[in-house]
TrEMBL record:
Pfam family, one: HSP20
Highest rank taxon of the organism: Bacteria
Membership in a protein family: Belongs to the small heat shock protein (HSP20) family.
Record-linked CDD domains: ACD_sHsps-like
Protein name as it appears in the record: HSP20 family molecular chaperone IbpA
Domain SHSP: 32-144
SUPFAM superfamilies: HSP20-like chaperones (SSF49764)
């Protein structure tokens, strides 16, 4: 059963306004995603069974050498590189170069328990999410005179 994702702030909704168009710059676009490169990574994302799942289309890549998945400060980063092969007199419509796609993780994401797998050209990253929202905590203020 899919659930609604809750994000830390409004950055996610604003970024999604631009990410719908493959290759258009947004707040999370890197120079490698601009036209002439591999273009943007197409993804699908959903939450089900207490997990947040991101799937990215990355066909024809070697996950051990060409793909990197990182998580830091509530942001999932998928990076990939496709090296151009030289062929005399060949015509190619393939896209070569580097790309990066960043995705803001939902509230409650367990950044220490992330799992990634690559099958048939699809990278799937699974992040457990806590059913418990983060608690508000009052921080005592130390007075220094």
């Amino acid at each position: 059963m899919a659930t609604t994702l809750q994000h830390r702030d409004g950055r996610r909704q604003f970024a999604d306004l631009f990410d719908w168009a493959e290759g258009l710059p947004s707040l999370f676009t890197t120079p490698a995603m601009l036209p002439g490169s591999l273009r943007g990574v197409r993804i699908e994302e959903f939450a089900a069974d207490g997990k947040y799942v991101v799937r990215a289309e990355l066909p024809g890549l070697d996950p051990a050498n060409d793909i990197k998945v990182e998580i830091a400060n509530g942001m999932l980063t998928i990076s990939a590189t496709r090296q151009q092969e030289e062929h005399d007199g060949a015509r190619s419509e393939f896209h070569y170069g580097a790309l990066t796609r960043r995705v803001l993780l939902p509230d409650g994401a367990d950044e220490q328990a992330v799992v990634a797998k690559y099958t048939a050209g699809i990278l799937e990253v699974t992040v457990p999410i806590s059913a418990q929202p983060a608690e508000t905590r009052t921080i005592p203020i130390e007075r220094t005179d």
